[in-house]
Structures are given as C-alpha cells and as structure tokens.
Specification:
Layout (H helix, E strand, L loop, with lengths): L1 H14 L1 E6 L11 E5 L2 E5 L5 E2 L1 E7 L6 E7 L15 E2 L3 E5 L2 E9 L3 E7 L10 E2 L8 E5 L2 E6 L5 E6 L11 E4 L8 E8 L2 E8 L7 E7 L7 E2 L18 E11 L5 E9 L11 E8 L7 E2 L8 E6 L11 E2 L11 E2 L7 E4 L2 E5 L12 E6 L4 E12 L5 E9 L2 E8 L5 E9 L2 E10 L3 E9 L2 E7 L6 E7 L5 H4 L6 E7 L8 E11 L1
Antiparallel strand pairs: 1-24, 2-3, 3-5, 4-26, 5-6, 7-9, 8-9, 9-10, 10-11, 12-13, 13-14, 14-15, 16-17, 17-18, 18-19, 20-21, 21-22, 22-23, 25-39, 27-28, 28-39, 29-38, 30-35, 30-39, 31-32, 31-38, 32-33, 33-34, 35-36, 36-37
Length: about 525
C-alpha cells in the first residue's frame, strides 16, 4: 500500500501540478515565438528585425522558465541589415528539429527574402543561409516520409511547396492551401499532423488589437483545408478579453511536452497608461486541450491574462541575465546593435566599454554606435558612469531609450573643450531636439534612466550618490501607438560625433541594468 502511494505521488510530480502561470513567460521585445521540443528540452526563437545579432535562442525544461543561450544569426554573412529599420530585417522565424539537425527558417525583409540555416547544436554555430524561392513572410517547415515541406504566405495566401533541405532548392510548384477566415494578413503558418489530420495554424487580423489564431485541417497535406467552425481559437479582441491588460494575442506555435500535454507559445503585448504599449510584443504561453480527432482548444476558450491557474510542467529554474557589468569580458548574447555594427567602434578596455563616436545619429539610422538590451519589464533602472573627455563641440554620449529610429529619448553628455552639458534629447516623429540641459564642471558624470511603467525619469549625478531629475516623460511617448515600430524598447549606450575626421570616444563603466 505504501509503495502504491509513493508511485502515485511520483506520477503527480512527473505530470506537474496546478500553479499560477505568470504571463508573459519571456517579457519585453520577444515577438513571433516558435518552439520545438527535443527530448526533455524546449528551444524557442524570436524575430529580431533591425537588430544584430539576430534571432535569439532560448532554452527551457518547463516552458515557463527560459534561458537565453545565444543568437542564431551572429555573423554579418548570415545577416545583412543595410538600411534596416524596425519595419524591416528579420521577421518571424521557425525552429524545427529533425534527425539530429536543427533548422531555422525566416525572412530578411529588405535584404534577401526567405532563407534557412542549420545547426547540430541550437547554441550554434549555425550555417550560412540557404536562400529559398517561395517568398511571402513567416516561412515554416514540416518533415514527413523523407520529405521537407515549406509554407509561407505570398499574395496573402498560405502556400506549400517541397524543398531540398540540403540546398534549399524548390522541388514542387507552390500550392495554395488556405486564405484564412477573412481576417487581414493571413500569416504565421505552421503545419502539424495528429490523428490522421494535417492541421494548419495561422494568424490573422494584423499584429495589433485584432490579432488572432485560426486553424484549418485536411486529410491530405495539399488540401483542401476546412476551417474550424469555432475560429478563432485564440484572441483577446472579444467581449471576454477586451478589458485585459494583455492584447494583440496571436502568431502561435504548438508544442507537445513529453508527458503528452499540448501547449501554445504566442505573442501579445501589455498596455500601460491606457491603450499604449512600449515594451513590444512579448512571448506568452497557454495550455491546449487537443482530444483525439478533435480541434485544439486554447486555455479552455478563455482569454489570456497575466495570471492563469493551469496545470504546469514540473518547474525547472533557469539562470538569469546579469544586472551589473564591469566590462572585464566580451558582451554576452543579450546585447544587441542597430544593424551590422562597425566592430572598430566598440572596445572592452580596462574594465570599461569604449564607444567610438559615429557621424550617424540614432535618427539617421546608418549603423550608429549603439549597444543595448531589451527592456523586459515595466520597472527599469539603467545607470552608468560616463567619461567623455575625448570629445568636441556637438559630440554626444549617453543613455537612450530606443523604440525606432524616429522614436527615442536620451540623457547624454554633450562634449566641448570648454564646458560639458548634461542634456535631455528626443526624437518623437516630427518633434525632435534638445529639450533641457544643465552645465557641469568637468567631462564626466553618472547618468541614469528609471521607469515605473508609466514614466521615464532621466537623471544625472556628479558624485554617483545624489541624483537630479533632468526630465520625466510618459512611457506612452515611446509606445508603438505614438512612434510606430514593430519591436519594443531597447535601452542602452550610444556615442555620436559631428565631424568625421575627429577622434571621439566615451568610456562607460559600472553599468547596471535592472528590469523587474
């Protein structure tokens, strides 16, 4: 009897227990999640748009706790980003595993179109791109009987073709499968096979308020596909979900855990200060009930909330990103640059990060000298010490909160051989310029940006102890609704110069980045 009780207890621990699932599971700018399982491990990728390196890779044991383990596209030969903004660059990727190889397929909008890379280890290295013929965005893969199929959405239609996984060559003509239920922008297709049915999951409605997941199925991979009578299977744009902080739910990918349970990862965003979101589209998780021969039901048909009581997998904690940097080693995979960085402008030097000024401003958007991290939660504390002695009139170095090239705000030192200024600058579409400044003695200061989710506070100190707020602004000013963009806030350090021939650089040290 005792042994039977212990066996039952172990089974309960194996299948997980009821718990509060806190969404998002990967907060901040982590849109378009795609996930696969290999044994006990889950791997997830996100789109990265104009940022380098591209396509972050996350690892989890329980689908709730995730660790950033690298980036798929970490070489310029894999990721040309000339001229990319947050409307261009790397759109939604898909990750799949088949017979010992990991595959990542995606679109580089503006610099080449659809391509695929492979690796034996999701941490890399990943191969050079194999460019693909069938275009559209959001390509995905399905492997079956020694064949590899690709789906994407040229001409607002989900199309299917067979490709050679070793070369990327298209082997069959593109075949139209489904146009969705009538929502705009049918995209984000993924194929699955279950109980003799091929299921085609897509997103519709655009990646904004009306975003939703819809699904169709067929007995034959080439169709015809018939939509679920209860579509959409996921949306918060309805009577039940309209009052939730979470909106824009869609672009999902199913995955089955080892215990047989089904889950969906998907994107959504959280509103702050009304109907505004500045943190970007984030990665969310919900349970799926998928009975034999029936349609999948996401979260019992209920809307997605920030806290949901669900039966989770056994919890496995993962390492978290650092909050303090002494710049005594190369920057980790959490750091990103705008477009392909000029490596000569970034140097780890004696426990300092030295940034050499570029004549391209953040607004000009031509490989500016910038390096930053995704703001993951509404509370932010970003702080650093800046030494800007090597500067001239018109040069700048400091901290920026960046949404898009014409939507950002910063606190900076403006250089001069005579007098240094601490300035608040911003570019908010047509409203741009220096809006406040104070002169300080010397050429160095502590700069800080704080946020509580409703406001950003731009502050400085000359002794690292007593801070003065130079300006505070509403977070809504840097939201997608105000300045546009597909991404979310990335906050970090930058340095610009006015004259190309002058040598300008800033030393940053004791950098803190806390986002809770």
């Amino acid at each position: 009897m005792k042994r039977a009780f212990l066996i039952m207890a172990m089974m309960v621990l194996t299948i997980g227990s009821w718990a509060q699932l806190r969404n998002p599971v990967i907060p901040g700018y982590h849109p378009d999640p795609s996930v696969c399982r290999v044994g006990d491990d889950f791997y997830l990728v996100n789109s990265s748009f104009q940022y380098f390196p591209g396509v972050p890779v996350y690892h989890s044991k329980d689908l709730v706790n995730w660790e950033l383990i690298g980036n798929v596209l970490d070489r310029e030969s894999q990721l040309p980003l000339k001229g990319a903004t947050s409307w261009l660059g790397i759109f939604a990727p898909t990750i799949r595993y088949h017979e010992g190889t990991y595959y990542m397929i995606t679109t580089n909008v503006g610099n080449g179109g659809n391509f695929m890379v492979t690796a034996k280890d999701p941490r890399g290295p990943w191969s050079e791109p194999m460019w693909l013929e069938q275009q559209g965005i959001d390509p995905s893969l399905w492997f079956e009987n020694g064949k590899c199929y690709m789906v994407s959405n040229p001409d607002n239609t989900i199309m299917l073709c067979e490709i050679d996984v070793k070369t990327g060559k298209q082997l069959t003509p593109s075949k139209a499968l489904w146009r969705g239920t009538g929502g705009r922008y049918p995209e984000g297709p993924h194929l699955y096979k279950k109980d003799g049915w091929y299921y085609l999951l897509i997103s519709e409605g655009g990646t904004e308020l009306a975003h939703k997941l819809t699904i169709a199925r067929s007995r034959n991979i080439y169709g015809p596909y018939v939509g679920n009578p209860k579509n959409p299977i996921l949306t918060n744009c309805n009577m039940l979900g309209q009052s939730m902080q979470i909106q824009g739910t869609g672009h999902g990918d199913f995955v089955q855990a080892k215990d047989g349970s089904w889950w969906v990862t998907f994107l959504a965003y959280r509103n702050f200060g009304g109907s505004y979101h500045h943190l970007g589209r984030e990665t969310y998780l919900a349970p799926v009930e998928w009975k034999k021969g029936q349609w999948p039901v996401v979260n019992g048909g209920n809307p997605i909330d920030t806290l949901m009581k669900v039966k989770t997998l056994p919890e496995v904690k993962m390492p978290q990103l650092p909050t303090e940097y002494t710049f005594d080693k190369p920057l980790g995979p959490e750091w990103v640059y705008i477009q392909n960085p000029d490596s000569a402008k970034y140097e780890i030097y004696s426990n300092r990060l030295r940034l050499y000024g570029s004549t391209s401003s953040l607004t000009k958007n031509d490989r500016p000298t910038f390096v930053g991290r995704r703001q993951e939660r509404q509370n932010l504390l970003m702080e650093t010490f800046v030494d800007f002695r090597e500067s001239y009139s018109g040069d700048e170095a400091g901290l920026t909160v960046y949404q898009i090239n014409d939507g950002h705000a910063e606190i900076c030192l403006q250089g001069s051989r005579e007098k240094t200024k601490v300035c608040f600058k911003a570019a908010l579409k047509d409203l741009s310029g220096t809006f406040a400044y104070e002169e300080i003695d010397g050429y160095e200061a502590w700069l800080r940006v704080r946020s509580d989710g409703n406001q950003y506070f731009y502050e400085y100190s000359t002794d690292g102890k007593k801070y003065k707020t130079l300006v505070k602004i509403s977070c809504t000013l840097l939201s997608t609704e105000t300045v546009g963009g597909f991404t979310g806030v990335v906050a970090g350090m930058y340095c610009t110069k006015k004259v190309e021939e002058e040598l300008t650089y800033a030393n940053f040290s004791a950098f803190r980045f806390e986002s809770e």
